[in-house]
Amino acid sequence: MPEDSIILDIEALEAAVESRNVEGFLKAAEELHYADLAAVFENLDDEERSFFTAHISIDRFPEILAELPDTLIEETLERFDAKAQQDILGQLLDDDRADILQDVSAEARQRYLALLQPEDMEATRSLMRYDEDTAGGRMTTQVARITSDMTVKQVLEVLRDDINSTESLARIYVVDDQGHLMGKVRLRHLTFSPWDTPITEIMQEVDITILATADQEEAAQMFSKYDMTVLPVVDEFNHLLGIITHDDVLEILEEESTEDIEKMSGIAGETSEETYLNTSIGTHFKRRFPWLFVLAVLAISSGYVMLRFEHVLSSIFLLALYLPMVVAAGGNTGGQAATMVIRAMSLGELEPGSTFKVILKELSLGLLLGLIMGASIAAITIFILPAFNPQLPEGISYTIFALAVSVSLAVQIAVSTLSGALLPIGARAIKLDPAVVAAPAITTLVDIFGMVIYFTAARTILGL
Amino acid sequence: MPEDSIILDIEALEAAVESRNVEGFLKAAEELHYADLAAVFENLDDEERSFFTAHISIDRFPEILAELPDTLIEETLERFDAKAQQDILGQLLDDDRADILQDVSAEARQRYLALLQPEDMEATRSLMRYDEDTAGGRMTTQVARITSDMTVKQVLEVLRDDINSTESLARIYVVDDQGHLMGKVRLRHLTFSPWDTPITEIMQEVDITILATADQEEAAQMFSKYDMTVLPVVDEFNHLLGIITHDDVLEILEEESTEDIEKMSGIAGETSEETYLNTSIGTHFKRRFPWLFVLAVLAISSGYVMLRFEHVLSSIFLLALYLPMVVAAGGNTGGQAATMVIRAMSLGELEPGSTFKVILKELSLGLLLGLIMGASIAAITIFILPAFNPQLPEGISYTIFALAVSVSLAVQIAVSTLSGALLPIGARAIKLDPAVVAAPAITTLVDIFGMVIYFTAARTILGL
């Protein structure tokens, strides 16, 4: 199997680095993909990394560098002398180069920029104008541009030089003399058309483009909706600025999904580019502590409600048996509703205009879930609870006790489901990321509701 | 802006369908991408759909059909007569056709298969042998195959016929006479090489392939790790069976992320292919109810613990003020830890061998978070609580009360963080999906721990 041979090569590389065996290192490195080399490099200690950078071919290092996490970029580049740095930076794809320069210190950025060829420097500077998480920040400017007055033969001659530039031949774009995007040509049509065919004859219309300032998530949504290979990036005057390719989109999707999932669990701050195990305890701590603290302080409100209802709980302490259930059911239903709504938003399914439909759907669901859950718990209470012979004050039957529990459970579920759907929508309306109000925030909020609903229902129905 | 023009076309299409304006419908449909046409179709009512299928060009419908959710496939195909069905099924890409036939009733499947050309029928049947969520179930067999004894000119002649088959020219694979995969050729190298060049001269090695029986998630991970455009699918003897393309991977990633996110919120069952709003209340209910019910019954254990500690709570009812906080902090930290571990597993970062490292990391984090949270809450209790003049029994100072609360909070956080990390690892070890034991399950479990820890600490430290 091919996968096994990769694992063997990785092990051989690691062994060669550990024993400082140059020949073995070069042989194993030759066999491996740059993504695997980057993964190995990330896991080496300081001296081993020095051995790695001292012996790896300079031609292979740019691709490896582009795969490393942000925090490793500068210290890794500094292992090379200025000449080698110039070679490495010069060989990087221009979108990777711009990303890398955005991740290093200001001092290093100036120094690295000064090493670049004038045209590379200009392209890099113009890419760095865009935020890293916009279409412009993701695009490469290494796109094949031709004009509509050419023939197939002329285009092939122009493109021949680009043959090793991996990002440029999937689609070839036709621009006018001011750089406006006019159309596209596919390599296969160039290949199979007679040499004297005018480009206008095989040129296709470009329906779908994206503004450089648009959010990267929008680019990813367009890619998956329209099954695209390459997405052209334009400015507001329809000048072709660059392209986003499918590998950029895979990165965007992974980043955005991780970000959503983490935010939904109350994990704050930027998603780490490093793997879970390589992220330091300090970073993990800084990302988990803030929400934890805020939620803990908020949870004291739930305790305060409980304190206020001391007399209800003291009258029938058996109420404690169902208290955690009623409270927790709110967190669970609220969390489910929030997840469905947040995911639908992330996939671009919910326009702001559909708020009313969402409310109607979640309200119906909340009532349905509340009714069925309430009825189930009532049945359990009436038929099973008496077998344990628990203490109920005189005048309060199992049935009326079950009614109090079930009504509060049903109300709590309905209220929580609706809250779970509304909170992300509200967050979006005030320009917050919907994901930050997911499960933990909603759970804490509906915990407070749950306490109030439970004790109020008990007091009213049981006449305490 | 191009996006605006798409929105205008969509609105024109919807208006034309509503007013049954055939000419307007055809004009607007002409302008739109099949993904947009499918989205519009999904939102139409029954009569409008009939109008749509009666007038849309049969050549455009296969791509639209492939975008529709599973549940709509059969009823939509049944709107056409057998001749049109034959045209539509014949024009589908073979991986789409296999997917579609797996989504219809057994009766319809036989009928549709009988309409196919013999070679299409054979290809479809062989694809249907693989589960939908394996590499084999995702691949297309429409891949360009050549042999190594050809020249560039011969290859170009063979491929000329494939020019409109969108899935086949990204990579051209070289096989021997038994169909074993030998190498690949890129279209750009064919285009720019002299016609008499032997294929062996421009053939490149294929390092990375995937077994047809491998999970689709593995295919997606390889794509994003190795920045691939096309991933060849082979059997255990290295016969080339098909390819997975980048648009398949986008679908896989979206499906898997949605599935993870939903499972992590206690939503059960298959992820719906329909959008949130188009999924029925019944389906939503069926996916949310099961976990909700199980967790509610489990939560009664928490209540039981509370019932058993009645005397502790009755002695100092002020303990109720912090009870929800201590319990909830467990759910929150446990949820965070579980999320980090589950996501790291999904991204392929955690090998089964790294369990010990994960335990060490989460244990340190749990202790650190517990200590800092405990100290913060102790400070709040000692300096702020007395201002509200709450009742504490004689002989119990604010300091010793704060100590009891803080110690239980710290222990609860440490225990919950570790549980949150261990549960998904344990689930994977017994071949369960780690995502199902996320937030809701962990919260319910650590709620029970929290009650026990809190009341035990209070009883011991406060001498109740």
Please characterize this protein's 3D structure.
The structure is a homodimer of 464-residue chains. In chain A, a hairpin with a 5-residue loop joins strand 5 and strand 6. Chain A has 3 domains: 2-134, Alpha Horseshoe (MgtE N-terminal fold), CATH 1.25.60.10; 145-245, CBS-domain (Roll), CATH 3.10.580; 281-462, Orthogonal Bundle (Tetracycline Repressor, domain 2), CATH 1.10.357.20. The first copy, chain A, is built from 22 helices and 6 strands. With 464 residues, chain A is mainly α. Chain A is elongated, with a radius of gyration of 30 Å.
List keywords for this structure.
homodimer; 464 residues; mainly alpha; MgtE N-terminal fold; CBS-domain; Tetracycline Repressor, domain 2; three-stranded mixed sheet; 64% helix
Name the CATH homologous superfamily of the largest domain in chain A.
Answer: SLC41 divalent cation transporters, integral membrane domain
Query: What number of structural domains do the residues of chain A give?
Result: 3
The helix-strand sequence of chain A is HHHHHHHHHHHEHEEHHEHEEHHHHHHH
Quickly give the CATH architecture of the largest domain in chain A: Orthogonal Bundle
Number of helices of chain A: 22
Q: Low-confidence parts of chain A lasting 5 or more residues at pLDDT below 50?
A: none
**Helix fraction of chain A by DSSP (H/I, runs of at least 4):** 55-70%
Roughly how many Å apart are the termini of chain A? 72 Å
For the largest beta-sheet of chain A, the strand count, sense and barrel status come to: 3 strands, mixed
User: How would you write the strand order of the largest sheet of chain A?
Assistant: 1-2-3
Most residues in contact, chain pair and counts: A-B, 114 and 114 residues
Question: Strand pairing plus helix content of chain A: what structural class?
Answer: mainly alpha
Please tell me how large the radius of gyration of chain A is.
30 Å
User: What is the percentage of strand-forming residues of chain A?
Assistant: 5-15%
Oligomerization state:
homodimer
Here the CATH topology of the largest domain in chain A equals Tetracycline Repressor, domain 2
Mean pLDDT of chain A: 87
